[in-house]
Structure formats: C-alpha cells, structure tokens
Design brief:
This protein has 342 residues and is an alpha/beta fold. The protein contains 13 helices and ten strands. Strand 1 and strand 2 form a beta hairpin. The protein binds pyridoxal-5'-phosphate (PLP) and iron/sulfur cluster.
Length: 342
C-alpha cells in the first residue's frame, strides 16, 4: 500500500509497533504483591501476608503468565503458584533447607553430579518467575560461578570424567542467560568429546514464551550435542496462547521437548486437571516426563499431596490416557542413584 505524502501521519513510536523482547518482558514482570493483587481485582486483605512472605522469597511473575490467570479468583491455579501467602512462614517438621541433598553432590562450584552418566550445571541463580513451592528457594546461589572463567573447575571435572555423556543446564533457569553467554557455554561443552547430549531444564518457554526465539532454537540445533528441552508446566491453563506457540516452535525445530510438573495441592491434584495437562502437552507435541512429589523444603508444606493420593491419581490416568501421556510419578531421595518411582 502506498500513501500519498500529504496523507502520511507522524510515525508511531517504534516500541509500540514491535512486540517486546524477552529482556523487555522480564523487566516488565510484576515484583510487587500489591500490584499483582490490584491487577487481578483480588481482596486487599491478601496484601499484608503477601508482603511478609515476599520478604523471604520475593514475588516475581511475568505479565504473560498473569494474563493466563482468572481475574477475581484467589483460587486460580496459576496465581497460587506465584502469590506469597502466610502459610509459607510456618515451620513444619520434616521440611528443611536442603531436602534433596544438593550440597553433598557438589563436585565443583556449580556442578552437581548425582546420577550415572549425567551431571548438572547450576548455570544461573536467576529465574523469570518465583514458584512458591520451589525446591531451590533456599539454594546458596550466591556461591556459584557467574563468569565463563569461573566455570573452568566444573568444566575440568566434566573433561576428566568420561563416564559423563549428558550435561543438564539447570539453575535457577539457564535460559535467563543471554544467547551470547549460553552460546559460549554450549560451545565449550561441545568441545568435550565424550559429551553427547545437552539437556536444558527451563520454565521460560512457559512463563516468558518470547524467550523462545529463532536465535535460541538455532543455538541449540546447530550444536554437535543433541538438544533436549525439559519445560515445567503444572496446569493446563499454562499451555495456551503465546506459550503454546513457543512450545510448537521448539518442537518444530526438532528439539525433543519434555515436561515436568510438580504435584501441588489445590492446583493440579485432581484427575480432570492432570488429564487436561497431559492432553494439552501432547497436542502441542510435548511429552509428559515426570510428575514430581513435592520436595520437603521449608515454606512449602501447604502444597504437599499425600503420596497415596498421588498414586491413585496416576492409576486413574493410566486408565484414561495413552501410555506416552502418563508422566512418571517420582520422588527425589537424598543420596539415591536416580529419581525414585512412587
Ligand atoms: C533430576 C536430576 C537429574 C536428571 O535426572 P533424570 O532422571 O535423568 O531426568 C540429573 N542430575 C541431578 C543432580 C538431578 O537432580
Ligand atoms: S522456575 Fe524452577 S527454579 Fe525457578 S523458582 Fe520456579 S521451580 Fe524454582
């Protein structure tokens, strides 16, 4: 279309015509409990407890995730994953600071090696969302490497141990690294001959879908290492709109994409929700991998679902879904050589 010069209006500012970059979306994420509560039209009675709980583990949630919540519903399953509440502040016996034994499996700064053949790099402490049930909410991220040079001791262990074939990038969330830093790390890992696979554990494709760019997918597919993406969605309402598009982009670019979820009381501990979650995932090409029993980490006891109930739910799922759509229900036991099937 061509307009005659006399009809041309002043151009709009550039930033309103372009979709935000993931960095912009991250900087626009909600960090103030009061703002979240107002935005969703929730009772202001929630504010004081939210502020107090947020002082221990801050609120953080991107607008894209908030857009998938129902306004005015304090029981919304996405809201409950991110809104700080008073129940987090109580001490419950058995719920500790390092429930999964991370500190005993640290072989170098940032390197956890628990299982045969695969090792995990805590590639950053940052996340784009703060999940209230997070098993690493007390992890001492401040002690882990930041610059590429700081990774050398961990890379030296990987280089010297030819039993390791797969490296997991975890965190925090490894996709919080810029493409440049991620690319450098991947290149460095690809130079270690006995490594064959690179697995990325990230919640960003779910909560900050515009992180999935063509640059990212080509970084992953161009590498000598076979890429595997493990995303983290707990409820079918998460797997819609821009998130659905991001997952399809990953799948269509040839990256094996799996999902892990956590069984969470009042969020996904019912049969219809678990069925819908699996079906949403399968419909976009993502395979349900694990359903985790909650790790007993301080401040998360109110999310716990009894394992007997979890087993009953999985038994029902088996009757309703194809085998590939039923996640493995597992628990993490400190010191065990693999996740423990329940
Ligand atoms: C969960 C985990 C893995 C991955 O286990 P898989 O069963 O291969 O998915 C690897 N390393 C550590 C430290 C883990 O916690
Ligand atoms: S994205 Fe993962 S590591 Fe980050 S807060 Fe949520 S559960 Fe924890």
């Amino acid at each position: 279309m061509s307009l005659s010069p006399t009809l041309v209006e002043p151009p709009l500012p550039a930033d309103t015509t372009l979709p935000p970059t993931w960095h912009e979306s991250l900087s626009q994420a909600i960090r103030d409990p009061e703002l979240l509560i107002h935005k969703l039209g929730l009772s202001t009675d929630l504010i004081d407890a939210a502020r107090e709980a947020a002082s221990q583990f801050p609120l953080l949630v991107p607008l894209s995730f908030v857009a998938r919540m129902r306004c005015g519903d304090p029981q919304d399953p996405l809201l409950k994953q991110v809104l700080p509440i008073g129940a987090e502040l109580g001490q419950v016996p058995g719920f500790t600071l390092d429930a999964v034994g991370d500190s005993n499996s640290r072989r170098a700064p940032g390197l956890l090696h628990k299982y045969q053949g695969r090792a995990l790099l805590v590639s950053t402490g940052a996340c784009a969302v703060h999940c209230r049930y997070c098993f690493r909410r007390h992890y001492p991220y401040g002690d882990e490497p930041r610059r590429l040079e700081d990774w050398e001791p961990a890379l030296a262990v990987l280089e010297s141990d030819s039993s390791i074939h797969e490296v997991l990038l975890s965190g925090g969330d490894p996709l919080m690294l810029t493409d440049g830093r991620l690319g450098n790390l991947i290149e460095r890992l690809a130079s270690i001959p006995h490594l064959r696979r690179l697995r990325i554990h990230s919640r960003l494709p779910i909560v900050l879908p515009n992180r999935v760019t063509g640059t990212l997918t080509s970084l992953l597919t161009r590498s000598r290492l076979t890429p595997i993406m493990v995303v983290h969605a707990n409820h079918p309402h998460e797997v819609v709109d821009d998130c659905e598009q991001a997952l399809k982009t990953l799948v269509r670019s040839g990256i094996t994409t799996l999902n892990q979820a956590v069984l969470l009381r009042g969020i996904n501990d019912d049969l219809p929700t678990l069925i819908q979650l699996s079906e949403r995932l399968i419909d976009v090409g993502v395979i349900p991998y694990y359903l985790h029993q909650l790790d007993q980490v301080q401040g998360t006891a109110h999310f716990e679902v009894d394992a007997q109930r979890g087993k009953a739910l999985i038994a029902e799922l088996r009757q309703q879904l194809p085998g590939y759509a039923v996640p493995r229900y597992v628990r993490e036991d400190a010191g065990a050589k693999h996740k423990t099937p329940i």
